């Protein structure tokens, strides 16, 4: 890829994206530019041979794809500052939670004549396994979508959706890692309760979730079918499944996604 990548905001998510892009060869380190008000974060970017710069405008002047990776309350401030320097070659990618395309293209932000892509990533981006979704706005077209897809495929998976579905994405994959961490912790606690040492229980629980997820992705089989493959008649697994159903575990996960989705809708209206 011959595009130069810029980050306005050089926090952990920006760092994970930059490292992933470079590691997978979709861009070269010398083609990555970043700025942040915290000097230590700029030094982190310098440590893997990218180009920390002094300000937002310099990022825009140096790069073609601009990631807006600041806290949501600062997005419009940043876009208002750099707006006079935006050109047709620029694609603006916002990863700020709850900031709608309408807010991004407002008169006091980037404006309507800019290529805008809104992305909802999640924290497994930090280990190269994000589950993300994007939607397009402004002058963005299929070429911009393909550009963003190539970038994010280097750090996980990304899917294109209508913006009205991004709150559901937030409720599922955005908040989902916390649900999975809770599940891993609970599985490990069960192992400890059954006599396993804590460190072994934690590793077994985490590896079990990792392996199970790979089976879903690689086999393409329905989760119910994979569950049935694991349950032998009158066996240990179906006994455990019975207890999970008795506790309403399935409904609890569904309700968690719905609650997070509703909260994301509320926050989007407040932005």
UniProtKB/TrEMBL annotation:
Record's subcellular location: Cytoplasm
Binding site for NADPH: 56
Residue stretches in coiled coil: none
Pathway involvement of the protein, from the record: Amino-acid biosynthesis; L-proline biosynthesis; L-proline from L-glutamate 5-semialdehyde: step 1/1
Pfam families per record: F420_oxidored, P5CR_dimer
Catalytic reaction equation(s): L-proline + NADP(+) = (S)-1-pyrroline-5-carboxylate + NADPH + 2 H(+); L-proline + NAD(+) = (S)-1-pyrroline-5-carboxylate + NADH + 2 H(+)
E.C. number: 1.5.1.2
Cellular component annotations (GO), alphabetically ordered: cytoplasm
Enzyme class: oxidoreductase
Sequence positions that bind NADP(+): 8-13, 69-72
Family: Belongs to the pyrroline-5-carboxylate reductase family.
Protein's name in the database: Pyrroline-5-carboxylate reductase
Organism listed in the record: Chlorella variabilis (Green alga)
């Amino acid at each position: 890829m011959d595009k130069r990548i810029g980050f306005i905001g050089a926090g952990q998510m920006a760092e994970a994206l930059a490292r992933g892009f470079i590691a997978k060869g979709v861009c070269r380190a010398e083609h990555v530019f970043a700025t942040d008000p915290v000097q230590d974060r700029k030094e982190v970017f310098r440590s893997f041979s990218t180009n920390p710069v002094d300000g937002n405008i310099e990022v825009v002047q140096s790069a073609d794809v601009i990631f807006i990776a600041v806290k949501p309350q600062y997005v419009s401030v940043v876009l208002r500052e750099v707006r006079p320097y935006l050109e047709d070659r620029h694609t603006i990618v916002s990863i700020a939670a709850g900031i709608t395309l309408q807010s991004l293209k407002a008169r006091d932000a980037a404006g309507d004549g800019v290529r805008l892509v809104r992305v909802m990533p999640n924290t497994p981006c930090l280990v190269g396994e994000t589950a993300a979704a994007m939607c397009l706005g402004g002058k963005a077209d299929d070429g911009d979508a393909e550009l963003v897809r190539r970038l994010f495929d280097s750090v996980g998976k990304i899917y294109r959706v209508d913006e009205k579905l991004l709150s559901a994405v937030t409720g599922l994959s955005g908040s989902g890692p916390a649900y999975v961490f809770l599940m891993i912790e609970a599985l490990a606690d069960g192992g400890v309760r059954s006599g396993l040492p804590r460190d072994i229980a934690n590793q077994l629980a985490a590896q079990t979730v990792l392996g199970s997820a790979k089976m879903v992705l690689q086999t393409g089989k329905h989760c119910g079918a994979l569950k049935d493959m694991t349950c032998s008649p009158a066996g240990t697994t179906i006994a455990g499944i019975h207890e999970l159903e008795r506790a309403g575990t399935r409904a609890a996960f569904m309700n968690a996604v719905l609650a997070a989705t509703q909260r994301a809708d509320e926050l989007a209206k407040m932005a």
